[in-house]
Amino acid sequence: MPDARIRILPSLSQIPAAQWDACAAGGAARAEPFVSHAFLSALEETGCVCAKTGWLPQHLVLDGPDGVPLAVAPAYLKGHSRGEYVFDQGWADAFHRSGGQYYPKIQVAVPFTPVTGRRLLLRDPGDAMARPALAAGLRELARLREASSAHVTFATEGEWESLAAQGFLQRTDRQFHWTNAGYGSYDDFLGALASRKRKALKKERREALTSGLTIEWLTGRDLTEAAWDAFFAFYMDTGARKWGSPYLNRAFFTRAAEQLADQILLVMVRRAGRYIAGALNFIGADTLYGRYWGAIEEHPFLHFEVCYHQAIDFAIARGLKVVEAGAQGEHKLARGYLPTTTYSAHYIAHPGLRAAVAQYLEHERTVVAEDAAVLTDLGPFRRGDEIEQD
């Protein structure tokens, strides 16, 4: 782009929040929570994202002729593949066995967050030159840092196509998302399901809240430090079992809530006067993003109630269009969450590795598409010719 230049920032503290967020919002009223300056800087300020954790910030900023950013991208130099949820460890192992060095690599992503959204953040979404400029910047950043590759994960489909035109390899995967078909209540949603599935979910919800359990929705000023203390205990228990070492520290939750409280929902479960389980969600413009769950007591079906059914209740109440309930999990299918394609794009410098990965991805894309079609057919929704009965 004439008279434009790209900068590399080692910290979000080096760009004003208003400038970053103008690009992250892309003409909308405000940025989605995960690409906002507040969220990403909270990760840095609390030490969750830093060289020690293997996420060294290398954010790209595309400045216009007047020095005002036209586009930005949250980028990191990484020495591992943890916390990404788009798995390339097999590529790294194969390259290492052949004598190559896969790490470090460049990752354009929201750390620890498998949520679809814009990754090449254009102030003007119609700017035809900004995306190619950022793609070129990523290739150059990989060269400067002697990185094997650059990866843009959980991107939008439009970004995926644009990056392919710039020489990035295309990858797909699958998550399970719930879509609001204009439901006025959870019962309206149940009415769209086959009779047997509807009865099963009604029973599941009844049984989940036995033993004197009650549900609370906490957002905004209701997000007290006491609530965060309780939730953090749940998060640490789950994180220790799933990852060995949880990604986020206690300070992150307080820091994020200071600026994003109205975009955070804690679904908390209380029994005998104390919290015993909870799930963290973030609220976007039209999407509820489910993130972390944990509990210090075991109760049948409680995980499904708190993470999936309560999320649907909240989305309907707020008029949100989608619930993204996190990575993986075919058990979500029976609860109305259908297969949804996710997209990532990958620049690989070494010609041999690139050719091998390209061949693998061509086959993988076919498998992902076929698998999604089969799972969709297995979903709980009533077919048009099915007879209603309860």
- Name the shape in a single word: globular
How far do the termini sit from each other? 63 Å
- pLDDT under 50 segments (min length 5)? none
Q: For the largest beta sheet, what order do the strands appear in spatially?
A: 2-5-6-8-15-9-14-13-12-11-10
Rounded mean pLDDT is 95
How much helical structure, as a percent, in the residues?
A: 25-40%
H-E string: EHHEEEEHEEHEHEHHEHHEEEHEEH
Quaternary state of this entry equals single chain
Rg result: 22 Å
Task: Count every beta strand, where a strand is a DSSP E run of 2 or more residues.
Answer: 15
Explain this structure:
- This protein is of the alpha+beta class and 390 residues long.
- The protein is 37% helix and 24% strand.
- The chain is built from 11 helices and 15 strands.
- The strands form 2 sheets. An 11-stranded mixed beta sheet has the order 2-5-6-8-15-9-14-13-12-11-10. A 4-stranded antiparallel beta sheet has the order 1-3-4-7, sandwiched between helices.
- Strand 11 and strand 12 form a beta hairpin.
- It is globular.
- The N and C termini lie far apart (63 Å).
- The model has no long low-confidence stretch (mean pLDDT 95).
